[in-house]
Write a structure and sequence with these properties.
By secondary structure, the protein is α/β, with parallel strands linked by helices. It has one domain: Vaccinia Virus protein VP39 (Rossmann fold, 3-Layer(aba) Sandwich), CATH 3.40.50.150. About 40% of the residues lie in helices and about 20% in strands. The protein has a 7-stranded mixed β-sheet, sandwiched between helices. α4 links the parallel β1 and β2. α2 crosses α5. The longest helix is centred in the first third of the chain and has 14 residues. The radius of gyration is 17 Å and the shape is globular. The protein binds S-adenosylmethionine. The site of S-adenosylmethionine has 22 residues, from α6 and α10. The site of S-adenosylmethionine (SAM) has 22 residues, from α6 and α10.
Length: about 230
């Protein structure tokens, strides 16, 4: 790691509220028993995707997967896609591991590290076919806005890691976060909007799987879906 990167790490803000909170005995047990089977430990050099995920032909990353409902669902639907799920919240990781194990899912690896470190250090450039970012922490207070994960630096990193034709999906029920992300995506010369081309049924199918999507739906909040493609 360069001095600049380690400096960035030291002074940067946290984008998540917490890593730990009440954890059920089942989640604790899952972390103890299954994390080593699914974990992608943090390293300083980019992974070889075909070695980590043998037998897969596409590479997708879900950032901040929460309880992992979408991750597990998608991985079961698309068995030849490699899924790297990144989540710092340990009870969520525990819940996800339980489902991965129960359903004998083979094409998922989980990282419990900060997504910015994982992308920076471990994900090779031009290899990701799909980024999925569902309901990133909205940090609604003005003084907390700097903690929003999806900022221009983060999008730049994602775009570098995307393969040509690869997509970034960001879904949020915060209108001003959606506006902020939209501006960043629109300004990026390598991205083109596919938002209008989304298949509504497919979007619904992936979304009902997340806890925050259900919360948004119950409270009647509008949900914004931004889908962009790496065009060149
Ligand atoms: C509001 S929750 C949404 C969870 C899930 N995607 C859903 O829709 O139910 C946002 C999640 O992003 C995770 N998160 C925030 N910053 C992160 C980071 N830098 N690296 C990894 N995960 C992060 C948080 O721990 C939290 O679980």
């Amino acid at each position: 790691m360069t001095v600049t990167e380690s400096g960035m790490k030291q002074f940067r803000v946290k984008t998540y509220a917490r890593r730990e909170s009440r954890i059920t005995p089942a989640q604790k047990k899952a972390l103890a028993e299954f994390l080593s089977l699914y974990e992608l430990p943090l390293t300083d050099s980019p992974i070889c995707v075909s070695e980590v995920f043998p037998g897969t032909s596409r590479f997708a990353i879900e950032v901040g997967f929460g309880d992992g409902e979408t991750l597990v669902h998608r991985a079961q639907q698309n068995k030849t896609t490699a899924y790297l799920g990144i989540e710092v919240y340990r009870p969520g990781v525990g819940k996800c591991l339980l489902q991965l194990h129960k359903n004998n899912v083979k094409n998922v690896r989980v990282s419990t590290n900060d997504a910015r470190d994982v992308l920076l250090q471990q994900v090779p450039s031009n290899e990701v076919n799909e980024f999925i970012i569902l309901f990133p922490d909205p940090w609604p207070k003005l003084r907390h806005r700097k903690r929003r994960l999806v900022n221009s630096e983060f999008i730049e990193l994602c775009v570098d890691r995307l393969a040509i034709g690869g997509t970034i999906l960001v879904v949020t029920d915060s209108s001003d976060y959606a506006q902020q992300v939209l501006e960043i995506l629109e300004e990026n010369p390598n991205l083109e909007s596919m938002t209008a081309e989304q298949d509504a049924a497919a979007v619904q199918d992936k979304l009902w799987q997340t806890r925050y999507a259900r919360k948004a739906s119950l409270s009647g909040s509008q949900v914004f879906e931004l889908l962009y493609k790496h065009s060149a």
